[in-house]
Amino acid sequence: SQNSFLSASLPEEIGTLKKLESINFSNNDLTSLPASFVQLVNLRTINLSYNKITNLQPVFTNMKKLELLDMSHNKLVEVPDHVKEVAAIEINFSSNQISVLSEAIAECNRLKVLRVDENCLQLSAVPEKILTDSQISLLSIDGNLFESKDLHAREGWEKYMERFTATKKKLY
C-alpha cells in the first residue's frame, strides 16, 4: 500500500510515542529520521522500505526488542560502524546502493538474518567477520558486483554454512 503522505521528514514529536511496537513508513519520500526516533525503545518492527533515506543514522541504539529493521529500497550507500548498536534479529538493506559494509555488523549479537541483495558490493567489501565471527545464519547477497559462489572460497564460509544448516534443521 502506498502511504505517500510523508515527504522528507517525520515530526520530532514521534519520539513521544514510547509504547509503539511497530512502525510502517514504507512508500514515502523520507530522507532521514528525527533524532527523537531513538526514544522509541519498544519497537519490534520498523518498516522504512521504499523511501529516499541516504544514511543509517544512530537512532536504533536503544531498541533492545527490535526484531526487524527493513530499510530496503532506499538510497543507502554504506553501513557504518554504529550498526553494531542495532539489536535486530533481521536487517534488510536490499536494493540500495551500498558499497561499504562495516565489519562491525558482525558484532550485532542478535542478528540472524542479513539481507544485502541488489547493492553495489564488491567481494572485498564483504567482511570475513560476518562468516567467521557472527550470529548470522542467513546472508542474502545475490545481485551485487560479484558472483555469490565466489563467497564460498572466502575464509569462514564453512563456519557460516554450519550456522545456516543448523538453523535450517531447526525449522524442519
3D structure, described in words:
The chain contains two helices and ten strands. It is of the alpha/beta class. The strands form three sheets. A six-stranded parallel beta sheet has the order 2-4-5-7-9-10, with no helix packed on it. A two-stranded parallel sheet has the order 1-3. It is globular and about 50 Å long. The N and C termini lie far apart (33 Å). The mean pLDDT is 94. It comes from Larinioides sclopetarius. Pfam families: LRR_1, LRR_8.
Chart the SSEs and their pairings:
Layout: E1 7-8, E2 22-24, E3 29-30, E4 45-47, E5 68-70, E6 78-79, E7 90-92, E8 100-101, E9 113-115, H1 128-132, E10 138-140, H2 157-171
Parallel strand pairs: 1-3, 2-4, 4-5, 5-7, 6-8, 7-9, 9-10
Search tags:
globular; 2 helices; alpha/beta; 172 residues; 12% helix; two-stranded parallel sheet
Mean pLDDT: 94
The residue fraction in helices comes out at 10-25%
Structural class given helices, strands, pairing? alpha/beta
Physical arrangement of strands within the biggest beta sheet: 2-4-5-7-9-10
Largest sheet: 6 strands, parallel
From the alpha carbons, calculate the radius of gyration and give it in angstroms: 16 Å
GO cellular component, one term: cytoplasm
Organism: Larinioides sclopetarius
InterPro entries: Leu-rich_rpt, Leu-rich_rpt_typical-subtyp, LRR_dom_sf, LRR_domain-containing
Protein name: Leucine-rich repeat-containing protein 57
